[in-house]
């Protein structure tokens, strides 16, 4: 290709480059939007996970509440509350150092 | 050819340039109309409601927390096939059909709530129907996982999520947090775009409130109060547990309780935190404060004697009697006045002091004044202004004619327990900013000294007499620990304040444990018990059970009663003596600590053996369970230097 022909094609190449750049910009914008949607979806999932965690915390709090533990101890493990007479009193080995 | 190409190129250039120029014109030059249009079309404001902060106990256990829920609303104008939708909704939400149809039938309405705060699962089910005119708003719902625990203290929320009572009301500003508004771009379907999505990951959150309360103690207190109410067929009961050193509230209960998650279905009188909102004539639990003031002003000493008129004391045309009609005391000491709860003895002390000193003394201990606790609705009780006549002075000295809240009474006892300083009780330990993780401890007020340390110690010693054999508070004793306290059996005043309700009493006990170095101050009061009303029968045993749990939970070691004394000199003497802890009834033989010869342990239970070897340096090992069949070393043999004792046990 002669230098003359190249000189003639230069504007065409320039316009093509501009068009390609514009297409590139549009493509990047579309990609940004697509990523934005993915991000939104992930955000919703993340929030869902957070809520599930919170619900699990509530279940844990319910399962460890004293009245439930006492009920379970009595019904499942047939345990009874210690009677005062059953309590063995051991003297405090550190009594002297405390005083 | 060349000219044609040039013409086409120039044409395209001009066209392109024109378009670009126009675009630049629209893009870069200010145009209000276009700007508004753009904002309306592509911008949206997303409001992120603040999650209400949690409330936790002193160990971080959750007492109140918030989770996401969804509120369903309708646009009745555009809902198709209303009857069918109403039927489906009433079935899904367990609502009456008539209610649902009334919400959606009016075609002129554009907004109507159907149900607030429904769970996610139900929201997802309804969303699947894809009914036009039904939409959801995300809100928060408050969950109280412990249901009845601390119901009156925690309080509850209104339908708009605002605190209505209790701590929820008192700390509304801290708990509610600030909602966040975010302006983001949106697409044609209204979905938020791009990186702003990151902003939605977490909602703003209110502060976390950490209480001084111990959930397990709280539960124990509520359980014991409920048991007492049931056992004595009482109207209700209240109880307070304070940290003796700081006046921090460890438990605060009012029975009957209710499920805070269903607070709106409960009558107002049950929702009230009666420990701070209700005052009553406290009865004999007031006596120690009159004695304390008299001791402070050097009017009496613990061994001063007062003549108690053999049970009848006339003041003008009125007669004061002992609370127990069988009591006909002659001259008794101050210690006995408290131990047997003599009204006449206390009245005589009060009359000797004079009305102004009695009133001053009661006020110094916080009666007739608000305690300053960080709970809403606190009242100051009643302490009449001077002048008082002789009868009013006498009755006030044993807790009649004045009124106090249970928290005031407990806090006054805390002043005796902590060495004579009256502090303000408090329930909030710290407030944490969940987002920045900064914790701010709530500053406590200083308090003021009402007694010297020695006087407070003397008062504690006098109050231990109340739990000795034969005294009114004997049933408040806790094995292994000394208890100081006072019983109170008060007639219940009529609501109009004129006279007393026939057969209605408030049985109470206020005390501290361990008496020599108090850790807890506990006050319990049972309202209108029917089967019996004496505090020694009704309230003192409740105190004993709660106190027993409290000291064991906090790991306090029991003390041999003889080894502890309030007088340091005597304490030093006692400490020199070898001590044994166990009662002698089960001991058949003592271990000889000099020669370390093992006695015969055969047929004893493990518990009996433990009691027997108590106080000796012995490493106990067991094989099997049941009663002792053999030991190593054998009975009569010396225990080895390392102190090992092996027990072979067998079930009978």
Topology:
The complex is a heterodimer of chains A (about 100) and B (about 650).
Chain A lengths: L2 H61 L2 H10 L19 H4 L1
Chain B lengths: L1 H27 L3 H11 E6 L6 E2 L5 E13 L7 H12 L3 H8 L7 E7 L1 H10 L4 E10 L7 H4 L11 H5 L1 H5 L3 E6 L22 E4 L3 H17 L4 E8 L5 E7 L12 H4 L2 H4 L9 H10 L8 E3 L4 E4 L2 E4 L9 E3 H6 L3 H11 L1 H10 L25 H8 L8 H12 L3 E2 L5 E6 L4 E4 L6 E2 L3 H12 L19 E10 L6 E14 L6 E8 L7 H19 L14 H9 L29 H8 L5 E5 L3 E6 L11 E7 L2
Parallel strand pairs in B: 2-7, 21-23
Antiparallel strand pairs in B: 1-6, 2-3, 3-4, 3-5, 7-15, 8-9, 8-20, 10-13, 11-12, 14-17, 15-16, 18-19, 19-20, 22-23
Helix pairs in contact in B: 3-4, 9-19, 12-14, 12-15, 12-18, 14-16
Your description of this structure?
The complex is a heterodimer of chains A (99) and B (652). The relative contact order of chain A is 0.04. Chain A has 3 helices and no strands. Chain A has helices spanning 3-63, 66-75, 95-98. With 99 residues, chain A is mainly alpha-helical. The N and C termini of chain A lie far apart (106 Å). By secondary structure, chain B is an alpha+beta fold. Chain B has 21 helices and 23 strands. In chain B, strands 2, 3, 4, 5, 7, 15 and 16 form a 7-stranded mixed beta sheet that branches. In chain B, strands 9-8-20-19-18 form a 5-stranded antiparallel beta sheet, with helices on both faces. In chain B, strands 21-23-22 form a 3-stranded mixed beta sheet, with no helix packed on it. In chain B, β19 and β20 form a beta hairpin. In chain B, α3 crosses α4, α9 packs antiparallel against α19 (535-553) and α12 (287-296) crosses α18 (453-464). In chain B, 42% of the residues are buried.
């Amino acid at each position: 290709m002669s230098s003359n022909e190249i000189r003639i094609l230069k504007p065409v190449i320039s316009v093509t480059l501009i068009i390609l750049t514009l297409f590139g910009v549009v493509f990047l914008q579309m990609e940004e939007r697509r990523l934005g949607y993915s991000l939104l979806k992930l955000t919703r999932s993340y929030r869902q996970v957070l809520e599930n965690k919170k619900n699990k915390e509530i279940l844990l709090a319910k399962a460890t509440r004293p009245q439930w533990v006492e009920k379970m101890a009595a019904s499942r493990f047939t345990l009874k509350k210690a009677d005062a007479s059953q309590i063995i009193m051991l003297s405090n080995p550190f009594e002297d150092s405390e005083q | 050819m060349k000219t044609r190409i040039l013409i086409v190129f120039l044409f395209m250039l001009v066209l392109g340039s024109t378009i670009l120029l126009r675009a630049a014109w629209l893009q870069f030059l200010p145009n209000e109309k276009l700007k508004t249009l753009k904002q309306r079309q592509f911008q949206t404001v997303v409001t992120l409601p603040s999650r209400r902060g949690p409330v936790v106990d002193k160990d971080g256990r959750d007492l109140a927390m918030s989770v996401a829920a969804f509120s369903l609303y309708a646009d009745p104008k555009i809902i198709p096939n209303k009857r069918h939708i109403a039927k489906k909704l009433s079935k899904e939400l367990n609502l009456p059909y008539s209610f649902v149809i009334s919400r959606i039938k009016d075609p002129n309405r554009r907004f109507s709530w159907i149900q607030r705060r429904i769970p996610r699962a139900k929201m997802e089910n309804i969303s699947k129907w894809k009914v036009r005119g039904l939409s959801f708003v995300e809100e928060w719902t408050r969950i109280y996982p412990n249901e009845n625990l601390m119901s009156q203290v925690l309080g509850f929320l209104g339908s708009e999520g605002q605190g209505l009572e209790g701590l929820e009301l008192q700390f509304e500003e801290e708990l509610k947090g600030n909602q966040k508004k975010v302006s983001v771009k949106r697409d044609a379907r209204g979905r938020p775009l791009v990186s702003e999505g990151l902003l939605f990951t977490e909602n703003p959150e209110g502060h976390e409130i950490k209480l001084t309360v111990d959930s397990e103690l709280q539960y124990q207190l509520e359980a014991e109060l409920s048991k007492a109410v049931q056992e004595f067929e009482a109207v209700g009961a209240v109880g307070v547990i304070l940290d003796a050193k700081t006046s921090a509230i460890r438990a605060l209960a009012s029975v009957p309780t209710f499920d805070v998650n269903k607070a709106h279905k409960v009558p107002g009188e049950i929702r009230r935190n009666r420990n701070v909102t209700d005052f009553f004539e406290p009865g004999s639990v007031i006596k120690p404060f009159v004695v304390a003031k008299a001791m402070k002003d050097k009017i009496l000493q613990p061994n001063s004697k007062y003549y108690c008129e053999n049970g009848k004391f006339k003041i003008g045309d009125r007669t004061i009697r002992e609370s127990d009609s069988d009591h006909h005391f002659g001259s008794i000491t101050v210690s006995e006045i408290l131990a047997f709860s003599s009204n006449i003895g206390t009245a005589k002390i009060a009359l000797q002091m004079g009305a102004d000193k009695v009133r001053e003394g009661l006020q110094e201990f916080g009666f007739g004044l608000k305690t300053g606790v960080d709970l809403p609705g606190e009242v100051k009780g009643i302490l009449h202004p001077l002048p008082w006549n002789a009868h009013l002075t006498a009755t006030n000295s044993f807790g009649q004619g004045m009124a106090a809240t249970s928290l005031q009474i407990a806090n006054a006892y805390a002043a005796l327990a902590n060495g004579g300083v009256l502090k303000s009780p408090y329930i909030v330990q710290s407030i944490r900013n969940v987002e920045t993780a900064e914790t701010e401890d709530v500053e406590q007020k200083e308090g003021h000294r009402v007694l010297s340390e020695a006087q407070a110690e003397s008062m504690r010693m006098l109050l231990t007499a109340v739990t000795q054999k034969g005294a009114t508070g004997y049933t408040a004793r806790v094995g292994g620990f000394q208890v100081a306290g006072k019983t109170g059996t008060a007639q219940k005043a009529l609501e109009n304040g004129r006279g007393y309700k026939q057969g209605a009493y408030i049985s109470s006990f206020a005390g501290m444990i361990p008496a020599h170095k108090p850790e807890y101050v506990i006050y319990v009061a049972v309202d209108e018990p029917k089967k019996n009303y004496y505090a020694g029968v009704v309230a003192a045993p409740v105190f004993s059970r709660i106190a027993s749990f409290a000291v064991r939970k906090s790991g306090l070691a029991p003390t041999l009663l003889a080894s502890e004394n309030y007088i340091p000199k005597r304490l030093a003497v006692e400490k020199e003596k070898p001590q044994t802890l166990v009662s002698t009834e089960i001991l058949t033989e003592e271990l000889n600590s000099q020669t370390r010869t093992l006695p015969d342990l055969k047929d004893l239970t493990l518990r009996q053996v433990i009691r027997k070897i108590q106080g000796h340096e012995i490493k106990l090992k067991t094989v099997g369970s049941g009663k002792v069949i053999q030991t190593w070393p054998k009975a009569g043999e010396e225990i080895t230097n390392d102190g090992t004792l092996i027990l072979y046990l067998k079930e009978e």
